[in-house]
């Protein structure tokens, strides 16, 4: 027993010496015990959608890469703008890399974004967009960077070349190289990177899902959270003569910080954004605070019985 204890003490001394040597060579904190590093819990911030926060186990993770993808007009940009608004409400700084050159200040303001203090970049090519995003991330002064979108990150060689020239894998190589740098920098700075992505279709696929996201597979690997958003139907006006919104369904396809494959639904009203009241009602139904029967919601009051509305 004494021999085992003596061997354990020697091992601990050797471990401490090795850690001190590594920290002296590569900087303090290069290797550390997790218990002394401030805890293992991943910090989160609200996404701006209550039902989605419930599905994510608290919200979007800080210092991680998040991918939001889906078909056109499914609510990707709206969801990202709500996340930007929440970061600004908490006193943080947010940046939008508008690679599509389609930013709408009026709509963003309606969603609660402080457009006066929002940092906006409209790059000329993909290399410029990702280099600017990486520099802002390394500054430590930005809490959220949103790239809209990966499909619009056109490599410089493609822009300078002629239309119709074969440019195989340029965008995939660009994303792979950039994410190898940016993922580590984002973790150190506590900056969340949100990449919006579009869906493409594989040619010649007869069995299985032909859908694939653009930009190669690097983003799938580096993303801690991948959210698939799709429209679950339109919302009609009271008269039923026009569409006033859509019902969005988000599926957590990948999550390294919470349980994956959960779903969240919410209403997006055109020109207004996500319905906060609708999210509260949906969460109340999920947590069985209210009961939905047809188009009616019921709340059981212990004193006066059932209240219908």
Automatic annotation (TrEMBL):
<keyword id="KW-0067">ATP-binding</keyword>
<feature type="domain" description="RecA family profile 1">
    <location>
        <begin position="41"/>
        <end position="199"/>
    </location>
</feature>
<dbReference type="GO" id="GO:0003697">
    <property type="term" value="F:single-stranded DNA binding"/>
</dbReference>
<dbReference type="InterPro" id="IPR027417">
    <property type="entry name" value="P-loop_NTPase"/>
</dbReference>
<dbReference type="GO" id="GO:0006281">
    <property type="term" value="P:DNA repair"/>
</dbReference>
<keyword id="KW-0547">Nucleotide-binding</keyword>
<dbReference type="GO" id="GO:0006310">
    <property type="term" value="P:DNA recombination"/>
</dbReference>
<protein>
    <submittedName>
        <fullName>Uncharacterized protein</fullName>
    </submittedName>
</protein>
<comment type="similarity">
    <text>Belongs to the RecA family.</text>
</comment>
<dbReference type="InterPro" id="IPR049261">
    <property type="entry name" value="RecA-like_C"/>
</dbReference>
<dbReference type="InterPro" id="IPR049428">
    <property type="entry name" value="RecA-like_N"/>
</dbReference>
<keyword id="KW-0227">DNA damage</keyword>
<dbReference type="InterPro" id="IPR003593">
    <property type="entry name" value="AAA+_ATPase"/>
</dbReference>
<dbReference type="InterPro" id="IPR013765">
    <property type="entry name" value="DNA_recomb/repair_RecA"/>
</dbReference>
<dbReference type="InterPro" id="IPR020584">
    <property type="entry name" value="DNA_recomb/repair_RecA_CS"/>
</dbReference>
<keyword id="KW-0238">DNA-binding</keyword>
<feature type="domain" description="RecA family profile 2">
    <location>
        <begin position="204"/>
        <end position="279"/>
    </location>
</feature>
<dbReference type="Pfam" id="PF00154">
    <property type="entry name" value="RecA_N"/>
</dbReference>
<dbReference type="GO" id="GO:0140664">
    <property type="term" value="F:ATP-dependent DNA damage sensor activity"/>
</dbReference>
<dbReference type="InterPro" id="IPR023400">
    <property type="entry name" value="RecA_C_sf"/>
</dbReference>
<dbReference type="Pfam" id="PF21096">
    <property type="entry name" value="RecA_C"/>
</dbReference>
<comment type="function">
    <text>Involved in recombination ability and DNA strand transfer activity.</text>
</comment>
<keyword id="KW-0233">DNA recombination</keyword>
<dbReference type="InterPro" id="IPR020588">
    <property type="entry name" value="RecA_ATP-bd"/>
</dbReference>
<dbReference type="InterPro" id="IPR020587">
    <property type="entry name" value="RecA_monomer-monomer_interface"/>
</dbReference>
<dbReference type="GO" id="GO:0005524">
    <property type="term" value="F:ATP binding"/>
</dbReference>
């Amino acid at each position: 027993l004494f021999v085992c204890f003596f061997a354990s003490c020697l091992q601990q001394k050797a471990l401490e010496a090795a850690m001190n040597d590594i920290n002296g060579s590569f900087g303090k904190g290069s290797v550390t015990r997790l218990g002394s590093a401030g805890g293992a819990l991943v910090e989160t911030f609200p996404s701006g959608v209550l039902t989605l926060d419930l599905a994510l186990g608290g919200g979007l993770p800080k210092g991680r890469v998040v991918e939001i993808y889906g078909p056109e007009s499914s609510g990707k940009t709206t969801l990202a703008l709500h996340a930007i608004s929440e970061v600004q409400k908490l006193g943080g700084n947010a940046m939008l890399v508008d690679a599509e050159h389609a930013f709408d200040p009026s709509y963003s303001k309606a969603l609660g974004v402080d457009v006066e203090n929002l940092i906006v970049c409209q790059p000329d090519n993909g290399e410029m967009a990702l280099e600017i995003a990486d520099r802002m991330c390394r500054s430590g002064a930005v809490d959220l960077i949103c790239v809209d979108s990966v499909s619009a990150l056109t490599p410089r060689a493609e822009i300078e070349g002629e239309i119709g020239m074969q440019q195989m894998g340029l965008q995939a190589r660009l994303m792979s190289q950039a994410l190898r740098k940016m993922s580590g920098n984002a973790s150190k700075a506590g900056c969340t990177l949100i990449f919006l992505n579009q869906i493409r279709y594989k040619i010649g696929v007869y069995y299985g899902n032909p859908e694939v996201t653009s930009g190669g597979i690097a983003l799938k690997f580096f993303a801690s959270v991948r959210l698939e958003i799709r429209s679950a139907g339109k919302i009609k006006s009271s008269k039923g003569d026009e569409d006033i919104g859509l019902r969005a369904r988000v599926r957590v396809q990948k999550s390294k910080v919470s349980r994956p494959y959960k779903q969240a639904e919410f209403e997006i009203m055109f020109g207004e954004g996500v319905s906060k009241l609708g999210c509260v009602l949906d969460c109340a139904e999920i947590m069985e605070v209210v009961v939905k029967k047809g188009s009616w919601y019921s709340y059981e009051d212990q004193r006066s019985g059932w209240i219908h509305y």
